[in-house]
Amino acid sequence: MDQAPKKLFIKTYGCQMNVYDSERMAEALGASGYVTTEVQDEADMVLLNTCHIREKAAEKVYSDLGRLRPLKEAKPDLKIGVAGCVAQAEGEEILTRMPLVDLVVGPQSYHRLPEMEARVGQGGRAVDTDFPEDDKFEALKTRPKAKRGPTAFLTVQEGCDKFCAFCVVPYTRGAEVSRPAARIVSEARGLVEAGVREITLLGQNVNAWHGDLEGAEGGLAALVGQLARIDGLERIRYTTSHPNDMDEGLIAAHGHEAKLMPYLHLPVQSGSDRILKAMNRKHTAEQYLRLIERIRAARPDILLTSDFIVGFPGETDADFEATMDLVREVRYGSAYSFKYSPRPGTPAAERKTQVEPSVMDDRLQRLQKLLGDQQRAAQEAMVGRETTVLFEKPGRLPGQMVGKSEHLFAVHVAAPESLRGEIARVRITASGPNSLAGELAG
Ligand code: SAH
Ligand code: SF4
Ligand code: F3S
């Protein structure tokens, strides 16, 4: 007899890779009879796919777990799982601190979720934070063919060997591993058959992808080249890149690969050589600036974005001013900036020279003002110009659609809903706080 499907509610924190992993976890639990729900209260299983990057992100998980208590009391059979980077970093401790949690699964072992779920069903609790030899993507079933929206993420590389002094990722995601090209291409074909037009290739250091393609330029550029040959795939992006892994082939691809969008997230973290050294970033501000020059020579209209940390231990006013100078020189299209957060087990957390919170606040405010001004300028520079837009969904106003420009700006356009999933030429007419407005170009 067929059983009614069980319902799975997943909450995703953190980076795009967690968004991708959440999809794959839902697919894995499909084998155990689960379908996803958007309504937490009707779930038979709640899975929090967590992020450990800053203290706030990690603590949020515990407050959200606390808030699940009444639901668990009302539904004793409710299963609660913690996945992702907090799961990896804290493992068993989560079970001790939070008795309502039934299972804890790390980012490299979630292909084992169905067995873990079964164990929990028999009244046990389960923890798996292994970095198994077997590749989870090989163990997971092929992806369902169900129709999807026009954009998708696709993980091609995971893990990090860089060990920046502030960062937990090398510990939570493990060493750098690249997926084989053939698997990636076949997954991308499946996504395109399901309606996807734009794929963003993901990796903690995506441009360190070194799969199994031949030749001196067998890196990410070669993979992009293979993917670009898929009919129906119109746009390719990739994130996140490390400056030291931007090889010549990839820079050149921005010049000749029409499907590669003119957008690059290239985190620099700081503009001070002293701080870059203390962060173990292994490049100087000058080297980064020269790299940007080469990238812009290959693709003059490329939009650059970055991540910054203010208040890294030992950061002086002069160091911070060097960051402001670098930002003024690069002119970013947008960027993320964060106050330094000491993370357990990382070398920077041990430093005695932590920066005062009020100083950090002040620096963050100044940096965000500058980056905000630059974003506004980048958006305003689009007004009067034409770009292509991939339409994703209806806008707030009737008769309006919203999509993304080549530069990843949201664009609102009066357009029929039949354009969903289509790419059209749009003339930008106005720039708003966080999006552009435009009209279909004739
Ligand atoms: N792999 C990517 C991104 C890693 S996490 C990269 O190397 O660029 C995303 C961003 O979070 C980082 O770029 C950094 O700016 C920020 N971050 C990481 N650790 C942090 C910490 N301890 N405190 C504050 N911000 C942090
Ligand atoms: Fe973290 Fe640095 Fe690795 Fe990025 S490159 S994931 S910031 S250690
Ligand atoms: Fe967070 Fe892990 Fe991503 S720590 S940023 S979810 S890799």
Describe the global form: globular
CATH class of the largest domain: Alpha Beta
What composes the largest sheet? Answer: 6 strands, parallel
Number of domains: 4
CATH fold label of the largest domain? Rossmann fold
Structural class determined from secondary elements: alpha/beta
- Average pLDDT, all residues: 95
Ligand list: S-adenosyl-L-homocysteine, iron/sulfur cluster, FE3-S4 cluster
Strand order of the largest sheet: 2-1-3-4-5-6
Compute the gyration radius: what is it? 23 Å
What is the CATH superfamily classification of the largest domain?
Methylthiotransferase, N-terminal domain
CATH architecture of the largest domain: 3-Layer(aba) Sandwich
Number of beta strands: 19
Question: Helix count?
Answer: 15
Low-confidence blocks of residues:
none
Strand coverage percent = 15-25%
Question: What level of helicity do the residues show?
Answer: 25-40%
Gap from first CA to last CA: 57 Å
Q: What does the model show?
A:
The chain has 442 residues and is of the alpha/beta class. The protein has 4 domains: 6-128, Methylthiotransferase, N-terminal domain (Rossmann fold, 3-Layer(aba) Sandwich), CATH 3.40.50.12160; 143-261, Transcription Regulator spoIIAA; 268-381, Transcription Regulator spoIIAA (2-Layer Sandwich); 386-440, Beta Barrel (OB fold (Dihydrolipoamide Acetyltransferase, E2P)). The chain has helices at 16-30, 55-67, 69-74, 84-90, 92-97, 113-121, 136-139, 169-172, 181-193, 220-228, 248-256, 273-278, 285-298, 317-330, 357-380, and strands spanning 6-12, 34-36, 45-50, 79-83, 103-105, 126-128, 151-155, 157-158, 177-178, 198-202, 235-239, 263-265, 303-310, 334-339, 386-394, 400-405, 410-414, 423-431, 436-440. The strands form 5 sheets. A 6-stranded parallel β-sheet has the order 2-1-3-4-5-6, with helices on both faces. Helix 10 (220-228) links the parallel strand 10 (198-202) and strand 11 (235-239). The chain is globular, with a radius of gyration of 23 Å. The N and C termini lie far apart (57 Å). The relative contact order is 0.08. The model has no long low-confidence stretch (mean pLDDT 95). Bound molecules: S-adenosyl-L-homocysteine, iron/sulfur cluster and FE3-S4 cluster. Residues 160, 162-164, 167, 169-170, 204-205, 242 line the site of iron/sulfur cluster (SF4). Monomer. Residues 6-122 form the MTTase N-terminal domain. [4Fe-4S] cluster 2 binds at residues 160, 164, 167. Residues 146-380 form the Radical SAM core domain. Its cofactor is [4Fe-4S] cluster.
